[in-house]
Amino acid sequence: MATAPKAAPKVVQIDEAAQASAPKKSKKKLVLLGLIALILLGGGGGAAWFILGRSAAGHAAPKEEPPKPPVFLPLDQFTVNLQPDGAGDQFLQVAFTLQVADTDQVEAIKTYLPLVRSRLLLLLSSKKATELSTPEGKKKLQDEIIAAVKQPVTPQSPPLGVTGVFFTSFVIQ
User: Fold this and answer.
1) CA quadruple 22, 23, 28, 31: dihedral positive or negative?
2) In a 3-state reduction of DSSP, which class is residue 162?
3) Which fold has domain 71-172?
4) 28 vs 16, 19, 22, 38, CA distance in Å?
5) What is the pLDDT of residues 44-97, one digit of tens each?
């Protein structure tokens, strides 16, 4: 009987040793699996943030400010004698509005309005009725008016920002 009690404690000790080493392995596996899951979730979240952040930024960048409304400056009516065309004296009575880049250009033109009107009177009075009676002639006159108004008013000043001419009245008599 002396041998029997010794055998029983050895079996118990082996079971205790097996039980003590088994929880350590399963805890290591759980910690390792948890760490892997955390890395994968963190990486996936970071990738989603990066992709969605780029697409949101990409959508925000193309949005432009709405275009500014055009700025117009109506000029007083001009009445000039046209160059003789063989049919006697002919007159041009024309009114138009200038389209300018911004309100600063309106103020610059108003400041030098006598000079601008003088340039335009000289231009208009140099024309013949036959030149102005066709649509092409009117279009050419628009371009010439833009060029005349754009000229710098002083040698140091930049050209004026005129972008368009719109006739509001056009009579040849």
Assistant:
1) positive
2) strand
3) Tetrahydropterin Synthase; Chain A (3.30.479)
4) 19, 15, 10, 15
5) 777 777 777 765 555 555 567 888 889 999 999 999 999 998 778 899 999 999
